[in-house]
């Protein structure tokens, strides 16, 4: 019996092996912004640094033939929409913030699935960061 048969794969790996196995991906890495986020009093006093990562999984059958932006998803919206969301008010939970980003991304034509994560690097002095990650795919 192989190791893969003994250990269940993550939801992302299972999705990738099935429907998304041939997908294309656009990613945003370590986008740093400041957000009013958190449940602790010290987190509510000032905006804090948050690192955001997004993977957009695109239609697997789409093809680039003319080298034109209309043939893919224009990723300029990612930074802009995340910035607007970050400025929209206080978020108690990273989960809420990430779910809103997920919904914005899944609404884009050509996007079939999305992975979003956020990390707060300055909350605890004894660790690199604390974060949350979510993955979602469009329902057929």
Walk me through this protein's architecture.
By secondary structure, the chain is of the alpha+beta class. The two termini are 34 Å apart. A 4-stranded antiparallel sheet has the order 1-2-3-4, with helices on one face. The protein is built from 5 helices and 4 strands, in the order ααβαβααββ.
Secondary structure blueprint with pairings:
Layout: H1 3-6, H2 11-17, E1 24-35, H3 41-44, E2 48-58, H4 76-86, H5 94-106, E3 111-120, E4 130-137
Helix pairs in contact: 4-5
Secondary-structure-based class equals alpha+beta
Q: What is the averaged pLDDT score?
A: 86
Main sheet?
4 strands, antiparallel
Q: Nearest-angstrom radius of gyration? A: 17 Å
In spatial order, strands of the major sheet run 1-2-3-4
Envelope shape: elongated
Low-pLDDT regions? 1-9
Euclidean distance between termini CA atoms: 34 Å
- How many beta-strand segments? 4
- The percentage helix is 25-40%
Number of helices: 5
Binned strand content? 25-35%
Order of helices and strands: HHEHEHHEE
Quick rundown:
This protein has helices at residues 3-6, 11-17, 41-44, 76-86, 94-106; strands spanning 24-35, 48-58, 111-120, 130-137.
Give the tags.
elongated, 140 residues, alpha+beta
């Amino acid at each position: 019996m192989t190791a893969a048969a003994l250990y269940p794969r993550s939801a992302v790996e299972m999705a990738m092996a099935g429907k998304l196995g041939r997908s294309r991906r656009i990613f945003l890495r370590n986008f740093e912004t400041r957000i009013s986020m958190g449940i602790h009093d010290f987190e509510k006093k000032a905006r804090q640094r948050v690192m955001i990562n997004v993977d957009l999984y695109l239609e697997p059958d789409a093809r680039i033939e003319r080298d034109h932006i209309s043939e893919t998803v224009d990723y300029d919206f990612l930074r802009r929409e995340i910035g607007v969301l970050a400025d929209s008010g206080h978020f108690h939970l990273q989960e809420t913030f990430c779910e809103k980003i997920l919904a914005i991304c899944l609404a884009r034509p050509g996007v079939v699935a999305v992975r979003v994560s956020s990390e707060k690097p300055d909350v605890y002095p004894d660790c690199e960061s604390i974060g949350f990650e979510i993955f979602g795919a469009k329902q057929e």
